[in-house]
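During the no-cost extension, the postdoctoral fellow (Dr. R.K.) reprocessed legacy sequence entries with the updated structure-token encoder. One reprocessed record is reproduced below for audit purposes.
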Amino acid sequence: MALVTLTAHVANTVLTAAALNNNFNAIVNQLNGNIEAANLANLAVSTAKIATGAVTGPKIAMGSDALGDLLYHNGTNYARLAGNTTTAKRFLTQTGDGSASAAPGWNAILFSDLPSGAVVKVTSTVTGATASGATAIPYDDSTPLTDSEGFNFSGLDTSHTPLATTHVLIIEGIFHVASSAVADVIAALRQDSTSAAIATGIETADIANTEIYQVKLYHKMTAGTTSAISFKIYIGTNGGATIYLNGNSGGRKMGGILFSSLTVTEVKA
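Re-encoded structure tokens follow.
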């Protein structure tokens, strides 16, 4: 800042108030807008003296600032969280202790982070191929025994390996079938080597040979293991009529895009 120029007082003359005011005004006018950083004492400017919104982004520097950086408080002061520079997608995560927060960071989503009810895995077998078989399943109040009842449509065999024993498995089947006789068409779901079916679905075929019907099956169970579980579909009628999958007695229908499927959806408990 330059020196302040004042009007000199003449010796042996009366110092008037007007003269003092003139010199005071001169000091104010020359200081206004000319104060430099060197003229300020350390910590001389308080927060109250900084206008709201006066500090803009270009005035903020945390050191090594780069694209993607975030500013957070570390409990003592504001700190810089560097952006994620890896080629892998990362998410901003933070875990407190129940009463206090913690510093944020870039992390992958862990399996344990998923909420209950989240779908964690799906295994599905879909086929448009035709197949046929004729093994009866009694239409009564007994559980179908697949060692001797129903024809195994092996093109729908599905193996699912659960991620956790506590997870829930939802098994859904949709089967397009025709029957060589008017009958109740029964689909039975088999698990691993257990002969007794764990779920069934029924649809009445009231027109023989030509009409195609949709048989649906649903089952919900706890996984209970992290080893592979085999699911198989057995279909038959009370009288042992021939069942045609994805077609009828005349062969394939819809050019191979009439699909039957067995799907296992695994849900976190």
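The two ends are 72 Å apart (CA to CA). Residues 1-44 form one domain. The remaining legacy entries will be reprocessed before the final report is submitted.
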